[in-house]
Amino acid sequence: MRSNYPQMQRWIGLSEGGFIDHPDDPGGATDRGITQATFDAWRRRLGEPLEPVRGISKAEAERIIAFQYLDRVGADELPAGLDYAVADFAVNSGVSRAARELQRVLGVTVDGVVGVQTLAAANRLSAQGVEEVIIALCEGRMAFLKRLRHWGTFGRGWTRRVMGERPGIQHRDNGVIDRAVMLARATRSTTVNTLVPGPVRAGQGKGDPTARSCALTRMFRRPA
């Protein structure tokens, strides 16, 4: 849902954190979830001179994330909660990978492109179906991450990013699976839950790469 973009951007920003250039990270230098290669392509597209990605502004990073990842996985048209689960997957592991896992879970043609067939299947889901797809998507994402050769280096951070601090789904946990399910439930209710993040842990980041995480410290309500 387009209206969820600001919240999704906040969560993705917290997971990605700031600048990281880990020698084992195949994505290379990354800041706010944007790799140097992606930043270079973005600047060329705009006809602007190339610059180091380190120090990229929050506003520019969010514009790139919306254009390069959220829009391309159809996050503006996916059900609430599922939109965030797919979007974070795309930022962390690529649009095609996230799209293919979504299509596999939905049981539609797997081609890596979120189009009318995929969106129609997602929007036919019941409320319970949305939660089940979120859970299956996150579990499939973890299975993919565990197969990567950098699992030994980044596995703990990836697990915390996707599944949170504790197994299962908790109201106050910080995993994508927790936030996505809670977002889906909040959207169905008569209130909107605003999640206030806690501190980001050091040493995680963008992935194929790595992952940063935060804790949800409290929730409050405001009129829908």
Topology:
Elements: H1 5-16, E1 30-31, E2 34-35, H2 36-45, H3 58-70, H4 82-93, H5 95-106, H6 116-123, H7 127-146, H8 151-163, H9 176-188, E3 191-197, E4 216-223
Antiparallel strand pairs: 1-2, 3-4
Helix pairs in contact: 1-4, 4-5, 4-7, 4-9, 5-7, 7-8, 7-9
Domain TtsA-like Glycoside hydrolase family: 12-94
Pfam family, one: Glyco_hydro_108
Domain Peptidoglycan binding: 98-161
What's a quick, concise take on this entry?
The protein is mainly alpha-helical. The chain contains 9 helices and 4 strands; from the N terminus they run αββααααααααββ. A hairpin with a 2-residue loop joins β1 (30-31) and β2 (34-35).
Task: Give the helix level as a range of percent.
Answer: 40-55%
Cross-sheet strand order for the largest sheet: 1-2
Quote the distance from N terminus to C terminus: 15 Å
Strand count, sense and barrel status of the largest sheet are: 2 strands, antiparallel
What order do the SSEs take from the amino end to the carboxyl end, as H and E?
HEEHHHHHHHHEE
Strand content: 5-15%
**Contiguous uncertain segments of 5+ residues:** 190-224
* Overall domain count: 1
Keywords:
single chain, 224 residues, mainly alpha, 9 helices, disordered C terminus, TtsA-like_GH18_dom, Peptidoglycan-bd_3, Lysozyme-like_dom_sf
How would you characterize the overall build of this protein?
The chain has helices spanning 5-16, 36-45, 58-70, 82-93, 95-106, 116-123, 127-146, 151-163, 176-188; strands at residues 30-31, 34-35, 191-197, 216-223. With 224 residues, it is mostly helical. The protein has one domain (2-217): Chitosanase, subunit A, domain 1 (Up-down Bundle), CATH 1.20.141.10. A hairpin with a 2-residue loop joins strand 1 (30-31) and strand 2 (34-35). The longest helix is centred in the middle third of the chain and has 20 residues, at 127-146. Mean pLDDT is 86; it is low at 190-224.
